[in-house]
Request: fold
Amino acid sequence: MAALYEGFTLCGLVSGQNFPETCVQGVERGNDTDHVLVTDSGRSVTVYKVSDQKPLGSWTVKQGQTLTCPAVRNNQTGEYVVVTDNKVIRVWKDEDINFDKVFKATVSAEIVRVHAVCDSEPVVLFSRGAVRLLDSLLAAPQQPIEDVVSEEEVIRWSSSIVDGKQLVVLFSTEQKGNHFLYLQRFSPNSIQKYKLETEGTADHPISFSASVKDSNINLLYLYSNGCVYQSMVQRHRALGEALQSLPRSLLLSLPVGEGHLASAALLSLDEAHVAVVGVPHPSAGAGKDYLCIWNTNFQTLQAGKEMTGRIFGQLWGYAGKLYVPHGKSLTVIPYEVQRSSLATALGKLKQSGTEGAPVLSWSSLLHGDVAQPQRAVRGVETRKSKISRKSQATSVLTVDQVLERITTAPEEEVQREVEMYLATAAPPGLQLTVGRVASQLVARSQSEPTFYPHSALVQLVHTHCLCHSVCPDLLMVALERKDYFLTQLCLQHFPDIPEAVTCACLKAFISVPDGELEEVSVELDSVAFMESLVSGSSREEGLRNGFSPVPQEEDSCDARIAASGPEKAPGWQTCEPTCPVGLKKGALLNEILQTAYSENFLLPHLKDLTAQQVILFLQYLNFLYLKCSQDDSSQKSGLRSPTITQIMDWVGLLLDAHFTVLVMVPEAKELLSHLHKFVKSQVKLFSELGKIQGSLQELHKVKPSEDVGQYSIEVIELF
Amino acid sequence: MGEFKVHRVRFFDYMPTGIRCMAFNSKTERLALARQDGTVEIFNFSDNYFQEKVIPGNDTRSIETVCWVGERLFTAGLNGEITEYDLVNLRPKYSMDAFGGPIWTLACNAQGTRIAVGCEDGSVKVFEVLEEKINFEKNLDRQKGRVVSLSWHSSGTQIAAGMLDMIRIFDVQSGRAVQRMLVDRGTTATHRRECVVWSVVFLSDRTVVSGDSAGKVQVWDGSMGILVKTHLVSKWDILCLSVSQDETSLVAGTSEGTVVQFQFISATLGEGDKEWVRTRTFKHHTHDVRAVLELQRSIVSGGLDTQLVVRPLLDKVDVKSYDTALRKIHFPHRSLVSCAEQAGLLLFQFPAHLELWRLGESDSHGCPGDRLPVKRKPEKLLQLKRKGEEHISCSALSRCGGWLAYSSVSSVRLFRLDCHSNHLSIVKISRLPKVLSSAHQLCFSADSSKLFAASSHATVHVISLSQSECKYVHTFKPVSGCTESVHLLAPSADGAWLATANRACEIHVYNLHKLKPHCTVPVYGSCPSAMAIHPTTNNLLMVHADHQIFEFSIAERRYTDWSRKLQREGLHPLWIGRDTPITQVNFNPHKPTHFLLQDMYMFCVIDQSLPLPDRTTQFYNQLTLRSLSEEERQSRTHAFKICKKFQPLLSMHTLEDGALVMVERPLLDITTQLPAPVRQKKFAT
Reply:
């Protein structure tokens, strides 16, 4: 899974005279993940604080001088490095105000780029292909620079990465339609040269992205025909061999629409995901103004976002944010990429119907504030959250220490320990440790009836690193302890709940009295679409199509089921649907409806439900279905509400499992006949719609009558 | 066979006016039809419903009623005058004021001796019909309220008169009203408005049938003055009635556009008394049916939707033939379009003005089926309003586009046009020869040096034209002594011959060099509807109203071999059975064996070098030929190449470069200009 969040504009762009085709020369990492260094196409370098969307400092060269490469930050010294007028290297610090008075050094050959890699010295790439470390170059600026590439070869792209502990500079060149890739390694210095294959003259690589994978350099490159190739460059290869083609494998074939890609860019996000900008969205016509995330393992589109205005074929990504210059602005788009699973790939995952982001509830994690809508705080971390995180990071414990404490310490202390641990733990190992912590907590609460660290568990679930298989007992414990909030969370976040457990949850939810749920806090997003329920009778908008929701006391809902006398017998058409369960119960049931399941495994467990439970659940599903089909407009995308298909699947499953029983139960008779009537009318409606569709389709075939107009000159032929 | 570049012209806004009244002369089988603009048209029903004569209208004349008295034609209208027409020279003979205000109706007795008119002032005036004139005889008792309809009893002693809210029967001898029958105003909704008896029919058994504005057809006993039967036919008005000659069938036209038939039959077959029973309803009109005629074998109706409909009554019984086909006559059977083939100009004739257009141009070439990009759009160069009240009867444009002439009933006007690039100058030739007082047909010679004007008594005047003056040259008179007016003129391209056709079906050929009659083509029984002289062979090609085609060699004074062959082998039945007459003959300037014919629904290229189709060949074979290979085509092809792509056609012309000009007038365009009908057909009603 991958998602793109709502983006924001970092800065406006002005098109420069020197680089009319690109408006930003580069966006480079600043002194931490929240700072970036933006070099515009003209004369200035600006440091931005991304989360504040605020420039912290800006430096501009004199009129007549130009910046010829993006500025970078030397992380070792905290200095910025930029090249002006191809040959002059300037080095300055944050404190320097006058840009003209900073350190300058003129070198003897033209520089293409300066690259800075996390923990090593910046390297300077010359336009003839020579590479120097910055320090050694500045020590002797006028040193002779050798030619690596021939006169006609032009460097198209370059990058530097750290492979293991070795710094590698990669650059691609073009010479008369042929494309080559060079790898320059340091200590010991070596250079490798490969030829990049092209099918036709028209197809050429237009964007590269390099990453390190299993101590090999993994290079992804996008061709103008939309193909994304992957090449693994071996680290050790003897020099002096004949020029080889770079072995490659086709990873993705992107839809190109008409013509070729001109300005598109690709960025590898992780092993399985690439972000592509400037390629058409497969389901949105030929417009190329999209930023898309593709899964390369399954060749599926994971997320897409339309970018208005011209796309420049530039894309940078730092710390979970993509930087896309488009139109007249540089937009920052936070993204999230989750490890892809088989369940997601098969699409049998909750929220499959709604295209949106997986739910993160930062607010509930940090403030325990459930009611706050999630969308507002999604994506970018707030400053507040960081402050609170920092303040907690006073004493750092290791996992083992935490685990040890869990077994013995009192509940409050355990809660605090876990919270602190989570606030400080680093993401890479989190998945393992969180599982261990959770298992430990669950084990203790199983053995110790009084021990139940609710908030700690909630926080653990919110890390997104937990799943059912990591801690199988968590859900059952939560259910035993009647912690419906946690159960709901688990149902939301676990992609791998076994059908038996789902069924157990369902059973528990149905049989819990509504009164008991009064006290429990439950996330009500999934029932938000049933406006009449949420807002009670205070629905102020005008009635739609004569629809008037009957205000219903939650408790009286159950009464209606019992009193299904003849006076309440009118069909679903005339009778305004009333919710047979309480609001919170509904929310929990909706969570069940949205879990992933496979029918074969679910059916036997469904048979465990009693007839009364089945009837109640069916009534609720019936009600939901009516609501969904009536208020389709109020089903906003992104809200966690069950889709009509999910509801219908469940109705079908329930009826399959219990039909013989239901037929015998007198109370179910009315419900069954309602369902029957309703389905029948729906079938009829759909068949009518089908006919209309068919007849409308026929209209396409009808040739429009020729509009002759007042005058035309035609050619006819007689035989 | 060949490709043609076609100028598809739809900017001629030809708009016929609604039909007001009709009268049928069963002896001569002529239908007289008056339109709302005062035009009178005469159709010859024995000659394929050919529109034989058109008497142009006049703004001061409005016609409410038309009546044949023997072979004489009378009309009367709201200007209060009775007019008799000169059917030879196609103009009013005289008009006479009846001094009773606007005249609503006019009826002639069966003997043809007296005419009665119903006036606005409530009087019925009887006129005696004398030779060459009519004389006022007497006024019948004057009533209150206008007299809207009249009908003579076959004995000639009584007249039934339809008025407002009542019908009266007058004794002609005494002038007294002998019966007074009150007509019910109908439903409460229409109760306040008086009921107009739009039409009465006085049958010989003294039954009176009336049609009124309340939508009723009522049968009265005229001798007792009592109502026998009421048929509520329509929510709207019954506007006209017509009874068959044997008085067994009666039709009524309504405002809804329907025609309802009643028949005098017994309710059960062979038993009991006969009564008037409503039998059939026909709907061929969208608007008021203002005139209807029951002609024993067909019903003829016309109304505000401008079309004349002939509905045969035996269509389901008889084998399908020319006579059993439903016929709708939309367009006049003569050309209202003149074309300057050299200059690419079109002249459109309207009753009140002329329009001169220049065709567009396209410099590209295309494959068959293509529509070429129009480089220069067609342009309206001139709109020429006529002078006076008389409608334009004919017009002509010279081949070079330098001369324009038009004529009304009493005057001819000639103009010199000078069209240089975008500048057009028009000069009226002021001093025309005295003989040129009116023309039935005008035509310029191919070199534009002469104007031919078909004038009264079948004469044709020849006028020579030059920049400085126009001079009378000669008058041709037919040797036969026939006086029927000439309606077709065909000069030869070399300027040596002039062929004329008159309404007596005679075709004369004159020698223009010697200014003498050359010969007369043997008279054929059907009126020529179009003719032309071949530009290279000087053969005269004639097409008649019954679709027969003749080719006559002028030099040899005999029918050509091709024409004889055609007559011997006969025309294809589908050709003979075509609905509308050929109104234009043209030649292909590049292919001397080709000539082109056009009627309302098709145009046809006839290749004289190809075999003629016999009865068994597929006649309309263009689609079949298109799908065949070149060799197979050769074996299947025949002389008639019919193209129905362009319709309805008003006119067709061949330009000098071989391009065709098709002047189309979609019927929908005419319909959309009509006022809204009283009753719109609603879905499922």
Notes: Chain B touches chain A at residues 1-11, 360, 362, 365-372, 374, 377-378, 605, 622, 625-626, 633, 637, 641, 643, 645, 664 (CB under 8 Å).
